[in-house]
Amino acid sequence: MTGFVPVSLNQFVKQYLRNNKGADAESVRAGVEDALAAWRQGVRCACGKPLWVAGSGVAGYGCFSCITGSAEPDGDPEIDVVCDDPFYELDGPEDRFAQVSEIIRNHPRDYRERLEEVGFVWQDDEYDLEYEEEAKEERKAVPETENQLQLIHFLDTGGPVSRHILDAYLEERYTPTPNLPLIRKYFKQANPQLKAILLKGLSINPTDLDLLDDLAYFSEFDSMLGELIRFYAEACIQETDMERFSLLAQDFHMNTYDHGYDALQELTAMFPSGAKGAVVQHLFDTVDQYDGPEDVLF
């Protein structure tokens, strides 16, 4: 069993909408936020176990076992702030505070070490433990297959993006056992050859949801928000299937909103009427417009 996979609230909503067509984004987000607030107040499943916040947001309050019928999670999503809590398995907030107080009272000289023994992690505000763990994985990562060897050789040396190279990337992306740390470090480096692969793929299929998602991730490490916006806007223009158009519009919104860009407002102007206009208006009315940075001015 691999346990829970930490995801942000936005990521969970996005994944849930993709897997459950017709679900309402605002309702899903509100449900998870409500479950998260309940978890913070110490609410537990009727069986006494901690809430599975992600599942409780869409299925009602309950632990993982009661909601799914499975004993343990195996790669199932859980909201990251819950997974990051070192006292997640304790009975409630009172128990957490009581344990900390008892350790500090009984071990005043070495309480830091004692707290670490029960799972407490000391973090500086400027120190990102998760980032450091990922960096360690990336430094150790090496190609393990012939396909990875060819792909990494291209990413390191460059050259024209052939169909063979694009297929190598897609094969690695969709394999059940991808070498995530190996490829992830090239995203974080804003590797130009990797960007060229993504652009080549989008030149062949401009509405590919996964390649656009990869480009959005790449943009987190490169100054290319304007470029990302253009690709999403063009994809929305070209897509003719309304279900896929709805997913594109949602991705466009979620992958740019934190950067201060209001994609739904732009799409409303692009599609003032018709089937696409109706989809955009529905999303505009239902997607939670949470507070973000000020709009980007072009």
Molecular structure report:
The chain is mainly alpha-helical and 298 residues long. It folds into 2 domains: 3-83, no CATH class; 135-286. It is built from 17 helices and 2 strands. The protein has a two-stranded parallel ribbon with strand order 1-2. α1 packs across α2, α13 (209-219) packs parallel to α15 (242-256) and α16 (263-270) packs antiparallel against α17. The protein starts with a strand and ends in a 12-residue tail after the last helix. The model is unreliable at 86-93 and 289-298 (pLDDT under 50).
The sequence of SSEs as H and E is EHHHHEHHHHHHHHHHHHH
The count of β-strands is: 2
Largest sheet: 2 strands, parallel
**Total helical segments:** 17
Dominant shape = globular
* Average residue-wise pLDDT: 83
Which radius of gyration do the C-alpha atoms yield? Answer: 22 Å
**What is the structural class?**
mainly alpha
Distance between the termini: 48 Å
Helicity level, as a percent range? 55-70%
Q: Runs with pLDDT <50, length 5+?
A: 86-93, 289-298
Q: How many structurally independent domains?
A: 2
Question: Strand sequence of the main sheet, in spatial order?
Answer: 1-2
β-strand percent reads under 5%
